[in-house]
Known about the structure:
two-stranded antiparallel sheet; alpha/beta; 6-stranded mixed β-sheet
Amino acid sequence: MLSSRLVNALFLGCAVLVAGCDRQSGDAAQPQASSEASLAAGNIDRSHKGSQLPDFVLADPAGKKLNLQSLKGQPLLINLWATWCAPCVAELPSLDKLAMILNDKVKVLAINQDSGEPQKAGAFLKQRGVTRLDPWLDPRNDLAFHFGAETLPVTVLYDAQGREVWRVSGPREWGDAETLKLIAEAGN
């Protein structure tokens, strides 16, 4: 008998593949990430406003641990992404730009959802010139399950007290003036 956690993880994994990015298909089935200009603005979802920051521990490729709860005290923008997800890859440069603009006033945390090969995320970011985002890993997709992610990318903004402000499912241009106004809602 499968545990309910395993069944839920399998269900979520299937939903992500069906509804979002498709890493199993050839190039013709999934367009390659081209530029920031091609990103559609993901819709802001405030239905979870006030929800508490989850108590999860992440790791980097070297095995260093990070407890999300330790980040309370400053606003936090969590982005779930994967190397096989074209919309995720397309928005990485604008997330990197946002991290530079915010200059640690809001912590931007990119959390890779690939399983296996933990060193792959860091190398992938470096190859694309992404220098301000650390390659944090969530190989069991615990956060994707927690956020009810049906597709990637998923981005969630928390205020300094660890309360959710809003979330976005799908890609977004992160460095524009509209987004900076939205991020200011976290009270940075």
